[in-house]
Task: structure prediction
Amino acid sequence: MSEGLVVAVTGAGQGIGLAVARRFAERGARVVVSDIDADRCRHAAQQIGALAVPGDVTRAEDCAALVQQAVAAGGRLDVMVCNAGIMQLKPLLELDGADWDRMLGVNVKGCFLTLQAAARQMLQQAPLAAGRPAGKIVTMASIAGRSGAGPIAAVIPHYRASKAAVLSLTQSAAIAFAPRLTVNAICPGLVESEMWRGMDRAWGALQGLQEGQVWQQRIAGIPLGRPQRPEDVADVATFLAAPESDYMTGQALNVDGGLMMN
Ligand SMILES: NC(=O)c1ccc[n+]([C@@H]2O[C@H](COP(=O)([O-])OP(=O)(O)OC[C@H]3O[C@@H](n4cnc5c(N)ncnc54)[C@H](O)[C@@H]3O)[C@@H](O)[C@H]2O)c1
Result:
């Protein structure tokens, strides 16, 4: 269902971004993979037959270059997945201004610069087909941006704030670009990725737990009975790029095995 689409994915060197990029490629899209880690970016692109455009989402010129190279390769940009993000676990009282700036710089400013660069291109191009949007933007928020419940809220306050801001930005962009573009967010839950492996180690160290124990405690409460795979997110990203979701904009979809029901 993604046949012929030109799709760019940020933070696609590993984890969720790579799974999203791979799923689009498997379904016939022309995919451009971007990541701040240039080696990881090239390796990922090679694995899935995509174009590699390394870049840092906090730099407007890198976001513009990503869009420009996608257009040079595919003639237009149909889908942008603003996925790049970082995590840090630190108790609220120990956080400093630099921690705060770095987190919001990547997760919020990076998302803003990426979607702005994508929209500048998409708003100039013809619709995907008669009666369809000219482009579709997907942001990567988190269930952490929707609720303060749970003990982890105390050790990731800046991450939670950043993802709440991504949800707000998604809604603003949806209004700003309607009816030409759709902009929707995905809120993943507990995804098996390097990001969660790092959280498990950091949170375990704070609580005096062995590696893997925090993860096991957290996944025990997932109603659908298994941890989330990056591919679970990828399937919803392709849906948000497909005609079946054309009447949705400004929405946030929880993809979390039923952890959060709102
Ligand atoms: N893993 C989870 O449980 C989970 C849950 C909810 C939301 N998310 C969100 O999903 C997205 C992907 O998460 P993941 O688990 O795959 O993380 P990950 O750490 O495995 O991968 C993130 C990728 O983003 C890249 N990146 C970091 N800073 C960048 C920058 N400034 N510019 C470009 N690329 C940059 C990294 O190099 C890395 O390859 C993030 O936005 C994250 O907040 C993850």
Observations:
- Residues 6-191+229-255 form a domain with the Rossmann fold fold (CATH 3.40.50.720).
- The chain has one domain: 6-191+229-255.
- The beta strands are 6-9, 30-33, 51-52, 79-82, 135-140, 181-188, 252-255.
- The chain has a mean pLDDT of 96.
